[in-house]
């Protein structure tokens, strides 16, 4: 669907066609996603996300835990809550009393590498049978959250997007239950403030990142991929928790009341991409599940020797 803007000049009419996604926007319909590579070449790359994950096919390893510093601290206020017409996003601004955002290290990441939180956003479905971007063991959950982290070796997102180790996205699935999840309620209560597309609000949400992810983060999946939206830059190490976070139907319906400018905002997930020759690792502490071709030295795993691809 397009809007037609009629402009009157002294001697003629000019009609300007503006896509419902804006001049520089993109859409989520199958046809629109098919057109992404025409404008964004990387969207046709070989390391694209999201992908389908199978526990039986993932390589189980005794990986180090993902260390999450600042995840249990309340996010500083004010934050910025945005409905950009394609998702709802929460951004934390640094200030004089809060000089560093929450950050992560460990897991499959290289030694001495740290990744600092930039923002978080959500992907959800209009119906309960879809919404998440990644599929786990054939299940597509109704919602998925992405916490985007930038490699601190790079000063900003623009620089990070130029390097294959630029970003880590920590992803969490949401599974529906009858009762509200009180931990996420402070965020959901603010969603009506950005009901309309292209709305940005300064908000004071008393919430921690830990309250938005599962309490048990011992098991996760990890692989090399891309942003799931244009420009689809192939610079992302994905870390996806195996256990979903609970959410009530009433709470996810609050997301479904948001507007994309013309209709209900939802079904904002990318189609599954081919995993190709990429490996997906999963963290398991049970030594009986260790991959046979991994050499162990005093029960220590050398992360730097791991390959992300099948030869």
TrEMBL record:
A GO-annotated cellular component: cytoplasm
GO MF term set: carbonate dehydratase activity; zinc ion binding
Pfam families: Carb_anhydrase
SUPFAM superfamilies: Carbonic anhydrase
Family annotation (SMART domains): Carb_anhydrase
InterPro entries in UniProt: CA_dom, CA_dom_sf, Carbonic_anhydrase_a-class
Residues of the Alpha-carbonic anhydrase domain: 24-284
UniProt family annotation: Belongs to the alpha-carbonic anhydrase family.
Designated name of the protein: Alpha-carbonic anhydrase domain-containing protein
Species whose genome carries this gene: Cardiocondyla obscurior
